[in-house]
Amino acid sequence: MEAHVRIGELSRRSGVSPQLLRAWEHRYGLLRPLRSQGGFRLYSVDDERRVAAMRSHLERGLSAAEAARLTLAEQRTAAPPGDTALVRGARALRDALDRLDESAAQSQLDRLLSDFSVETVLREVVLTYLHELGSRWERGEASVAQEHFASQILRGRLLGLARGWDRGSGPRALLACTPGEQHDLGLIAFGLGLRDRGWRITFLGPDTPLDSLSDAVAALAPDAVVLAGTTPERFESGRDALRRIARAAPLWTAGPGATPELADGIGARLLEVDPLAAAERVAAG
Q1: pLDDT, tens digit, for every residue of 18-42?
Q2: Which residue range(s) make up the domain with 15?
């Protein structure tokens, strides 16, 4: 296979229609295309492998959402070909964070960010580590101290990368977490991904009162509002306010607490993919 191909060729090789490939890309973040100079999406051999795995899981009777989650999880845990600098850096960062060694963790982040793009570090290192840390915490294999330490180190670095993300002349996105929600790392990663696609970001952060969010919408007239939360209750308690916000600006709901039923009920759109795939989706309209 060529290094990168357009969607028609990927469709021919995989036996999956272009329409379905696009749906898997937008809904689940299954495909991660590059852009040609002419603006065309270009797909890699890794995209073809994920499509093949997705088809295999569907043939076993899994739902599309389950098949996509399993395919992406398998890719995260699969041993990469060779011990690459990215793999070694990710491993060293994990070890430093697990032993609460801030100096070593910051040094590894410095190396990764100097050698790779921000989006590569976010997708292949930071988001992968956070997903894996969450799974270990649920199994009792990681401590609360390790989870808090890693979150604070990574949050500080991501916000450092975000400096000046409200500059420029592109469309504006207003980002916030639901009232009571303290987990904003995914939302910050989303904002960085959207910034790299030419958007300006206004970030209100965790635990944002909906009245404050509504005031910001009125003041800024953003092109998109993205509200994230980890539990449905954080959204449900503010349905009326969310309906008003959705009438004033395009509203997207995100995070584990966002559901299709809620989005439909308040006139919002649902982001049910990883943060960088979500950035691609919002940028595409």
Answers
A1: 999 989 988 888 888 876 666 677 8
A2: 7-77
